[in-house]
Amino acid sequence: MCGIVGYIGNADGVDYVLEGLKELEYRGYDSAGIACINKDQDPFLLKEVGRITNLEKSLKKQKISSSLVIGHTRWATHGKPTKNNSHPHYNNSKTIYVVHNGIIENYLDIKKELIDKGYSFYSETDTEVIPNLIDYYYAKTKDFKKAIKLALGDLRGTYALLIASSLLKDKLYLTRLGSPLVAGFAKDYIVVASDQNVILKHTQKVTYLEDFDLAEISGNKIKIENLKTLKVYDPKIEILDFNLKEDSLNDFPDYMLKEIFDIPETIRLATKGRIDPKKGLVKLGGLDNVMSQLEHIDRIIIVACGTSYYAGMFGEYLIEEISDIPVEVVLASEFKYKKEPISRSTCVIAISQSGETADTIAALEKVKDFGVLKLGIVNVIGSTISRITDAGVYCHAGTEKAVASTKAFVSQVVILTLMSLRLKNVSNKQSKQILKEIENLPSKIEELLSKKNEIKKLSQKYSKYKDFLFIGRGYDYPTALEGALKLKEVSYIHAEGYAAGEMKHGPLAMIDQNFPTVAVIGDEVLYEKTFSNIEEIRARKGPVLLVSSTLNKKTKNMVDDVFYLPKSSNHIGSILAAVFLQLFAYYVSKDLGFNVDRPRNLAKSVTVE
Ligand code: AGP
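That is the input. Now the predicted structure with 2-deoxy-2-amino glucitol-6-phosphate docked in place:
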């Protein structure tokens, strides 16, 4: 979704901001723009619809340089992707420039009031009210910082904002409420962004803004005032002790395929130093400090969205089976509005690849004052969720750039497996067997990936259909749901995931020769039960593609196609099936000629509720 980058220093920051915006491209956007505040010229503004390369090309023609630059990539929420709607936005007299992530919920009321006061508007956005509101208060107070504070006081919603003005040419203001913003201190300049990856290219010295912080940067100094506590404080400098991994495509045509092929290495990294299959024990350093609290937990609520939610469902089955603790999985977007009693012996686990998903953050905010233990299973190190939870476990999946989550899902499920074993903390036959399977999982996935041409052929055979059902029981159920989501996301084909046993309670009505079913049987124990559902589908002429870890000669000819997964036990077959379904969705999308990494209407990091 939207991205923010800013530069203030002595040299030219245009290229830095442009590079930063490129770094944010993978998050999804539809237009981009920059504003430069120059010492002896009028402010410069340039916005372009489409790729950042469009902005770059137009910029080259202008030969602009500036020591105070703000930039933005926009993912449309209010108003279509047009030049006018893209950021930065400015006030009527073109002296105040703003880039904004988030949503101003009461912008229509503010807009009306400003129109009544004589202001006019050129865009359909919520953001445009902000520079005009600051302008209005500045005219009254003649104090720019005060004007910002008064304007912020009128806003309802979420924001990360950079504010630059030709009225104060050497100052950059930043503020946040519910949307991330981080400042990095390089030797001769300060770079600010909505994503720390942008900063890491410049420096490891950073400070994260907290909600209600208003920071004023002047030269290489930053002064922060929290508008809620009214405390003025020096920035708390943190050192990011990790480097960005090289994540180029290498020989892969797209990130989604590359990231699926990253999965074996992802699992090795996620389990490195954490598992001891011989002893059947797990060590998760991130949980050490809260283990005594975890011993008293009698209920777990998992909150997450999309693919992470399906990983959470996997987690529910795992934790209940392995650690005997009751688990509920709730969509983060629903959790916020659910009124339910939550006791202090509850643990809330937030699962998020990006660590920045607004709904998941809101779910954690809701339980902030309940005294419950909050854990995170997060991929992006230093992200908001990793900072607002009490403890957690990183997925170590590396950067995931394709909008469709693949390797992060697998590592989330692997981490949930380890977490279940850690919660039980008992060395027995079951724990040894599961850990042995987890240790062998990377090579089994490599075996599956080596059959990519077979999977490609199957995908090409099925890409002509307009509707799909994905079914499974037990661990295969979240896998089926995730398989359907993956296909929808990247191929725009209607797909639904169902618990196999639910077929005759409704969905069977849709089945005919044009409505194929992908049936998942990763768990041998459930073979016969799920196969009965397959027979019901076959009896209604529905085509069936079976994905199974069980070789069964009798049933082979009773389905249209079958893909055999590498042999495994426990829930491992369902993880292998999930990887098959990721590749299946990938090849269907490619066959239909879509941009698999950047599906229409979607963004990688969903930072608005
Ligand atoms: C996954 O393929 C999707 N793009 C989406 O459902 C995603 O999983 C969801 O938005 C949650 O994101 P998060 O894991 O970063 O919180």
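The CA atoms of residues 521 and 548 lie 5 Å apart.
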